[in-house]
Structure formats: C-alpha cells, structure tokens
Amino acid sequence: MSDIQHEEAHTGPIKTPKQLLWTVIFAFVIPVFAIIGLVMYVTSANKPGAGAADESALVAARIQKVGMVEVRDANRPLKSGEEVFKAQCAACHATGAAGAPKFEDAAAWAPRIKTGLDALVHSSLAGKGAMAPQGGGDFDDTEIARGVVYMANAAGAKFPVPERPAGNAAAEGGAVAAATPVAAAATPAAPATPATPAAQEAAAPAAATAQADGKGLYDKACFACHAAGVAGAPKFGDKAAWAPFVAQGIDNMVKIAISGKGAMPPRGGSTASDDEIRAAVQYMVDHAQ
C-alpha cells in the first residue's frame, strides 16, 4: 500500500496520452495562433507600397487652403464650341447619360431650344439636375455659351456664336469722353473758357481709374450674364436693351445692382463695395450709349 502511494506522489497531473494532447494544444498551438491573428490585425490596414504614393504631396493636399486664386489671360483666343463640347460636355451629352439631351438628338433638344439661348446658357452656368455648374471651370462663360450653341445648333437651332464684348480700346474712348465734363466743372469761374491743360491732366487719370475699376468688376462678376444677355439681363453694348434702365438714372440702377433683382443676386454675387458697383454700372452704361 505504501509503495502505491509513494508512486502516485511522484507522478504529474498528465496520466493519459489524451491529457498530454490537450495540454500541448492549450500550451503551444492556441498561443501561436493568437499571436498570428494579432499580427494580421495590426498589419491589415491599407498601406501604400514603396514608391506608390508621394507622401509630401499627400501632406500638402491635406493642409492646403480652401480657396485658390488662379490668374488667367482674359485676352486669350476663345475656344470654339466644338472644343468645349469635346472637353467638357461630351461625357454626358454624347451618350445621353443622366438624362442629358444627346448630341444631335433633335427631339430631345427641341423643347430646350424653345426656351431660348439665354435660358440654356443660364442652366449651363448655374447647373441643373445632375449637371453641375459649369461657370468658373476650365472655360470662361463665353466659351461655355459657345459649347451650348454648338450642341443646340447641331440639333436644329440657329443661334449665333457668342463673342467677347468690346475690348480695351472702347473703354479708353469712354474714359476720355467721361473726362470732359469733369474738367469743365473744375473751372466754374469761366464756364465759357475751355479747361486748362493741367485740369484736363488731373481729371483724365481719375476717370480712367473709374473705368478700369468698373471693367475689373464687370469682367469678374457681371460678365457671366450681361455678356450674353442671360436671364433677361441687358446685353453689354446693346443700346436698345439698356435704354429703359438708363432712363431711370444711374442712382436707381446702382441701387438695383446692390440689392439684386430677378435672377441677379445682390451685388452680382460679389463682395464689391458700393463705389465699385457704381463704377461697374457706369462702365456698362458708357458702352451702351
């Protein structure tokens, strides 16, 4: 009896092969698989391979400013309607994707053509349905209007191809004409006597500056609608269209431009001051007389 107790005292808890197997599984196999799973979990995140991404460019993209300023040549040659169509419009209008009227599909374009060119250009610049606003993209508003005309005419319309308004030469002529009454008013003591050369030289730069400021704001904010007469806006240089507005007086016109009217947002959607708005209105009026 004592021999049996002595033998059991020197034996371990593992007495059968089955117990040995389970001991090995719990002691070695399970920890190994746990370690492998942990390693796979830690390394499972998507990581770019060596050379697959420019880390400096990614950092720059994350910290870049929200707004960007892009300087373009306002006097560069205009792109043709076909060029604009191929570069920006064909993605949807070539196949009729997302309900876009397909190129040369007269039936699809007919109801749109009936609304007129102004409405079509306005929809293109402001966006409509699945079509994002096209204004401010790779092409200026006149080029977008050319793309619209190209597609509409291919479907049976007879719209004229839009052109840019008069250039700087007309603006300079308007500045000289505007300088004359200013110079004359500078010499009230002798109204019949022409202004002195010194007074003319002092008045001409001021008028030229006002014209330049007005043209700058026109090119930035007013051009989108007034260049093509979009949404009923009086077209730049169109004397007949501007006549009823001119008859109301410059002060009333400036007031409307500041507060907005119809499709025109307040200040033309810009942050221009009252003086800048007046200069832009005067610039457009000067070219409609």
Overview of the structural elements:
- Helix 8 packs across helix 9.
- The longest helix is centred in the last third of the chain and has 30 residues, at 197-226.
- 58% of the residues lie in helices and 0% in strands.
- The protein is mostly helical and 289 residues long.
Helical content class: 55-70%
Mean pLDDT: 74
Tell me about the biggest sheet?
none
Choose one word for the global shape: elongated
Bin the strand percentage.
under 5%
The total count of helices amounts to 12
**Whole-number radius of gyration?**
37 Å
Low-confidence stretches: 168-195, 198-207
Order of H and E elements? HHHHHHHHHHHH
What is the count of β-strands? 0
Distance between the termini: 132 Å
Which structural class do you get from the secondary structure elements? mainly alpha
Quaternary structure type? single chain
List keywords for this structure.
58% helix; elongated; mainly alpha; 289 residues
Give a brief rundown of this model.
58% of the residues lie in helices and 0% in strands.
Outline the fold blueprint.
Elements: H1 2-9, H2 17-42, H3 55-63, H4 81-93, H5 106-114, H6 117-126, H7 141-154, H8 168-185, H9 197-226, H10 239-247, H11 250-259, H12 274-286
